[in-house]
Amino acid sequence: MTTSWLVTGARGLLGQDVLAELAGDPDAEVTGLSRDRLDITDPTAVRAAVTGHRVVVNCAAWTDVDGAERSEAAATAVNGTGVRHLARACADSGALLLHISTDYVFPGDGRRPYPEDAPTGPVNAYGRSKLAGERAVLELLPRTGYVVRTAWLYGAHGPNFAATMLELASRHETLDVVADQHGQPTWSRALARQLAALGSAALTGQAPAGIYHGTAAGRTTWCGLARETFRLSGLDPERIRPVGSDKFPRPAARPAFGVLGHGNWLRAGLAPLPPWDDQLVAALKEPAFAGSAAAARASARHR
């Protein structure tokens, strides 16, 4: 039996991978809408878009963390009010909603992985805007709403840390990278697979509604991620020099600890995402990353 899926934010880093993943499911009929085709802050447009779909995957978001600090109302209009419009439309039509959130809803002062039910407490405007969206989903869709928090997302279809490191490697002998922020680098393609599996489990009643943590297993720092990206790409990881966050002051505070626990996947009968370093091995084989790595190696040879 064919299931109709709607993916919002379909041209984004994650949205493109979700569309690609669902394209391989012969029972999925998929509509992808990018921001120029669906403004989720428009409730009338949202209602029209959701109608007729059984599962909605919301990848639309304001993702400019520092920009949110300067324009919190605008960020909340997308990440909070816009998500409320989606949740209300799903409630009215009976659709399931899989909504992407972030580790930034936590204060980042922990020492152990945050479980799904840990108290929230964002330290910046972006986190507050995303928490508003979470609350809308959980309030309006207590039985059919799924909040999937992710973090440190990278992939082939948009700007991201791993790609930036490889690009900078072509132009700089050494790079200073923050070593006092801890998190879980997560490949967008692996998360897309997990979202498709969660949606399928939700359709059969196997996966309870609520919060799931869609991050890689394990943990590292930005410096650790950069060094492993270099090592796997045939570059000298010692070119990455560890520094403190104070070397790169930003308008928005960053949580120092964003490691999340993954207990709720077992309730859904699904395995959590693989370790971050295993994901990175697979991701760097993608042409977009492989090409950047080759250019960086060529540059190093000519120094």
What is the CATH C-level name of one domain?
Alpha Beta
CATH architecture of one domain, by name, is 3-Layer(aba) Sandwich
Task: Please work out how many helical segments DSSP would assign.
Answer: 11
Specify the helix fraction band.
40-55%
How would you state the average pLDDT, rounded? 96
Biggest sheet record: 6 strands, parallel
Order of helices and strands: EHEHEHHEHEEHEEEHEEHEHHH
Distance from N terminus to C terminus (CA atoms, Å) equals: 59 Å
Strand order of the largest sheet: 2-1-3-4-5-10
- Oligomerization status of the protein chains: single chain
Annotated CATH topology of one domain: Rossmann fold
Structural class: alpha/beta
Q: Give the tally of β-strands.
A: 12
| Residue share in β-strands | 15-25%
Shape: globular
Low-confidence stretches: none
CATH H-level superfamily of one domain: NAD(P)-binding Rossmann-like Domain
Q: If you compute it from the alpha carbons, what radius of gyration comes out, rounded to the nearest whole angstrom?
A: 19 Å
How would you portray this structure in words?
The protein has a domain at 3-158 and 184-218 and 258-274: NAD(P)-binding Rossmann-like Domain (Rossmann fold, 3-Layer(aba) Sandwich). It has helices at residues 13-23, 43-50, 65-70, 72-93, 125-140, 161-169, 188-203, 222-232, 264-267, 276-283, 287-301, and strands at residues 3-8, 28-33, 55-58, 96-102, 145-150, 153-154, 175-178, 182-183, 186-187, 210-213, 220-221, 240-243. The chain starts with a strand and ends with a helix. The protein has a six-stranded parallel beta sheet, with helices on both faces. A two-stranded parallel ribbon has the order 6-9. A two-stranded parallel sheet has the order 7-12. The longest helix is centred in the N-terminal third of the chain and has 22 residues, at 72-93. The protein has eleven helices and twelve strands. The chain is α/β, with parallel strands linked by helices and 303 residues long. Helix 1 crosses helix 7, helix 2 (43-50) packs parallel to helix 4 and helix 6 (161-169) packs parallel to helix 11. Residues 6-286 form the RmlD-like substrate binding domain.
